[in-house]
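Journal club side-thread
Mid-discussion, someone asked how the predicted structure for our own chain would compare to the paper's figures. Pasting it here so we can look after the session.
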Amino acid sequence: RFVYLPYLGLKRVLWALMLVMSVAIYGSHAPLLTLCKVDGKIPFSASSVVVLTELTKLVISFISLLIWDRRQLGVSLSWRHAAPFALSALLYAANNNLVVHMQLFMDPSTYQVLSNLKIGSTALLYSMFLHQRLSLHKWLALFLLTAAGASYTYGGLQDLQHSSSSSEMQLHVTLIGLLLISVYCLISGLSAVYTEVILKTQDLPLTLQNLFLYYFGVLLNLIVHLLSSNGAGFLDGFSFWVLVIVVSQALNGLIMSVVMKHSSNITRLFVISCSMLVNALLSILLFSLQLTGPPGEYSSLQYCNFF
């Protein structure tokens, strides 16, 4: 008992650190992409970044397997264990590339708020596929979140139409951005729920499952890169901030695999929601983002915190 209690406390501390780190990474992703822009454009290939991110996760997973689950290397495995992860990798590949392209059609804070609509899509798919019934209070919360996203979208479009020519970043989103964010939220929910089902139904260590997932991730994203390459070099347009994105997204992917294996997508949704404040603070500090509204009404920042 005396040995178990300190272990339990350490486990809780590690969980808390992982979740806090994930909140910070989620919230900083869009601002980091904005820092990489040159003359308003993304100077690097989105597919290159995704390939490097998946490759980083693959290498870390393989090293983890050698350290903690070396005995699994001698176990005979069937292709049926690995094949389900191909679809997960395909869905993640589509979304990872979408995230980069969406930054051209909206500011970082607008992306962070609207991307939270994937909480609704994930919860719906979670209830359907995992047969987890949601209470009335939870459905009401999802409705409020959807309403908040819709209201924020309208405000962002209005800000774009009436924005001034100042150097300060304005809240904005285009119609193409709305279409892309809708597709992104649907794929995000589907990929998360599907991956959780696989991770929990297979009696395999997480390190080996990650190895399968990221192997397909590297393969599929490399194919995407080769097909979409316009002759530019693989690392063209890379900077220090791009490398920060690669490392941070790799760490976040590994953290989320632990969350889905040993907790649930509901925990993941909580992390995503908390990251909105991190994103807003970074956007204010780095880009002088104006989060104000007409007199007598909630400002955008107040509105985000309310929900």
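Post-session note: The CA atoms of residues 102 and 179 lie 10 Å apart.
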